[in-house]
Specification:
With 182 residues, this protein is α/β, with parallel strands linked by helices. 21% of the residues lie in helices and 21% in strands.
């Protein structure tokens, strides 16, 4: 397991399963419970955080190796890298401000040695990851009966409050409050 001073939980799934969709529903649920969290997302492609015509984009495209954009509401550091390899999760975690966080959620980094919730949709006809990944601690799916020895908690992928209960209890050691809409 990765050694990090905060709980780190990954979402593992094949492309198209709904990792980002679930995160967009799970994050507000966790925030409502007072959990301060960060998300580390792996992108398999080149991406831009700004649009052509915006100052940060134009300065970065002009050759700035680092561009820090700041306002009274947020700041972002964009760093150009010429690495021949994908970034390692532990390197990215080291860049987070842990004093401002309780939990880190990770999208992507499917093979990282961190606790993970597998997302599975029967309609996609993909193999179950938990059968070969000992770091998977639960399965969020759209079916209640899974084939194989699923001796893991099975969560409803369409019930973010239930998943938040699991995350709060398992990752933060807190008993979820009953009013969180199970």
């Amino acid at each position: 397991m990765i050694d990090f001073p905060l709980p780190v939980l990954g979402l593992a799934a094949f492309s198209g399963t709904g990792k980002t969709t679930l995160l967009r529903r799970l994050i507000p649920e966790l925030r409502q419970r007072g959990i301060r969290l960060a998300v580390v997302k792996h992108a398999h492609h080149d991406f831009d955080t700004d649009k052509p015509g915006k100052d940060s984009y134009e300065l970065r495209k002009a050759g700035a190796v680092q561009t820090l954009v700041a306002s009274r509401r947020r700041w972002a550091l964009i760093t150009e890298v010429k690495a021949a390899r994908e970034p390692q999760l532990v390197e990215l975690l080291a860049r987070l401000d842990i004093e401002a966080l309780d939990l880190v959620l990770v999208e992507g980094f499917k093979r990282a040695p961190i606790p993970k919730i597998e997302l599975h949709r029967k309609s996609m006809a993909k193999p179950l990851l938990f059968l070969s990944d000992p770091n998977i601690i639960a399965i969020a799916c759209d079916e209640l009966a899974l084939p194989g020895p699923a001796r893991l908690p099975v969560l409803d992928i369409d019930r973010p409050a239930q998943i938040a209960d699991f995350v709060e209890g398992r990752m933060l050691g807190r008993e979820p409050k009953a009013e969180h809409g199970r």
